[in-house]
Description:
Family: Belongs to the TRAFAC class TrmE-Era-EngA-EngB-Septin-like GTPase superfamily. EngA (Der) GTPase family.
Number of helices: 12
Strand content: 15-25%
Domain EngA-type G: 3-167, 203-378
Number of domains: 3
Binding site for GTP 2: 209-216, 256-260, 321-324
CATH topology of the largest domain: Rossmann fold
CATH superfamily of the largest domain: P-loop containing nucleotide triphosphate hydrolases
Low-confidence stretches: 166-195
Order of helices and strands: EHEEHEHEHEHEEHEEHEHEHEHHEEHE
Strand order of the largest sheet: 2-3-1-4-5-6
GO molecular function, one term: GTP binding
Mean pLDDT: 80
Binding site for GTP 1: 9-16, 56-60, 119-122
Distance between the termini: 62 Å
Helix content: 25-40%
Shape: elongated
Structural class: alpha/beta
Amino acid sequence: MTAKVAIVGRPNVGKSTLFNRLVGKRLAIVDDTPGVTRDRREGAAMLGDLEFTAVDTAGLEDSDVESMTGRMRLQTEAAVFEADAVLFVIDGRAGITPLDSHFANWLRKQKTPVILVANKCEGGAGKSGVGEAYALGLGDPLPVSAEHGEGMYDLAVALIEHIGGRTGGALGDDGDELDLVEVDIDLDPENETPLIDDPAKPIQLAIVGRPNAGKSTLVNALIGSDRLLTGPEPGLTRDAIAIQWEYDGRKVKLVDTAGMRRKSRVEQKLEKLSVADSLRTIRLAQVVVLVLDGALGFDKQDLTIADHVLNEGRALVIAINKWDAVDDRALALKDIEDRLERSLPQARGVPVVTLSALTGRHLDRLLPAVMQQYKRWNTRISTSQLNRWLSEMTQRNAPPLAGGRSVNIRYATQVKARPPTVALFAPRAEYIPESYLRYLINGLREHFDLQGVPVRMHLRKGKNPFVKDD
């Protein structure tokens, strides 16, 4: 097991900046606004030869447990209990505040060892704050600058005392990071079915949707733990939070994302950063679950998100949450399906799962639909099968004449997977209209069971690349 190091402290002392420094990537959103981080976020960190899991947390505030900040504090406290060491971060330039003293007293009572870190001490700044920090009773404060990378050697030395013998990257080489998954496949007549899916690697599953659709509640219900902050307030999630999980023997990396509103309504810088993080998560995911609020139906923004997912070439599943609160369920479901059919024809056949994340009703239907779409998304079609299908399609409905001459499609082959991408070779490819390509794509989906999966089809001029010249 890899050692866990929790980064805690009051809001706006630079915890997320330190987290990004330790993991070597800008994973956590950083802004001058206090309270940016709300959920725990983990990443594979390294200081010299020391490897561990860094845990970014929400700012500690003394609030009622029923309030949002109180629920955020409970998440931070859970991170402390699970950690092997704690980095208690203060602002060296601001000095010690009553809130620092309050939580220092709490940390001294815990069993987890604490390292006191005075941040923002670049260029000799923060000397007075470092002197004041001795009064917290947590040992010698370490002056660092997370933004400029100063003091990291001393931090590594301090950590070695507590976790030096417990190294290893349980999160994998990329930690919280998602891997780019689109795969180019070379045309190779000797090997038409190269292995694309690696069962040892986790399926990367993103949960997206509008604010307050119940995305975090859904993730908590799936993993059976209150891992993510939830509540009635819209927009609770800001960072994309990745969680390692396992379903039916297959590793899954669940990624909860910030709610995405219409672009015209997004004005604040912080929300723009959150939405950008969500869009990046979609781009790097493999399967995306779009969560809808059943009581609100299928909104224009939901269509925009679904369209973006398919344009990025990701497999899509639609989950209608809060289904137990819908009165006329048959009418609501028909309305959603009709809206999909009219406004998003490329999503025809996308699985639609009705459920309640809060009660767990029909939750068991979601992951089978995800696995089905993942399998379709990984489909490899042999060249012989494709060309038999192409022959049937062109005999049934030949390409339109161009200048009184026929346009022949001579050959088809799959050139990419994830999503399935087919190249058509035709000497006069430029004369084949988009409407005929749509006819072929729809036929491909139906014939090879690729319903609801983005399918791409490219036209190429030339002859059959597998026929040798005499």
